[in-house]
């Protein structure tokens, strides 16, 4: 689909304006229920179609059927997908997931979308979905955060710190940061099953080393350093000002349904912490909890489409 842009005023700086880019799949806005799909750290607004990163879930006659729903996906400002220089994030101080959620609501209002049928996203995208729900508890019918949580854990913040150190000090920052990140996105069982200790004699390296090198070089070819720094920074801002008491208070005001989805092998947002969130809100909200069983770790939200479909199909 064509990439569109909307100029909006920054919610943190009335002088600053940003060009928020987005894509629409399916019926035109205003003609069908709207499903907002939020992308993850290195993702973008291209969620469906030939090269869409969630094309197994979104499209004609698929789980999120673009014959019935209008799918709207924004680009996080500064992710580089729109090649918009003015969106380059230099000062990260006020660049938070809550800020991004405010951008999205400002854009939705400008697009005359008063009610959103569903907000769904995995990882960072799911965290932004949480932030959107906190800001507007009466405008979302279905909140579906996958492999994420409403608040960053110390484990996640520590890994973001390591990523920052690599990005600021390495001679090949994106490549090296991505190599580290891949082991946070996966898990030991999946890595061991995938490579089985194989050694590539012609390259004089282990297959797992070759795989990490490939992912590092691939990201280097499609991502700018400033963009990676900004997206990585967002992870540690998730729910920065929120406590469990805030979550309880919010759950009593949220009028929609909540479907939490965890991955049992997730090292980035553990199943245990997501289940704790569910236990906190279940008495105050219409909420359900489901687990994806996978050896692929955090990345299961990009891989286990059959399991995700079984969980979310009842909403679509």
Automatic annotation (TrEMBL):
An example molecular function term from Gene Ontology annotations: hydrolase activity
Alphabetized InterPro entries for the sequence: AB_hydrolase_1 (IPR000073), AB_hydrolase_fold (IPR029058), HAT_MetX-like (IPR008220)
Domain AB hydrolase-1: 33-155
Keyword entries, A-Z: Hydrolase, Transferase
Pfam families: Abhydrolase_1 (PF00561)
Protein origin, superkingdom: Bacteria
PANTHER family recorded: HOMOSERINE O-ACETYLTRANSFERASE (PTHR32268)
Name of protein: Alpha/beta fold hydrolase
Organism whose genome encodes this protein: Flavobacterium agricola
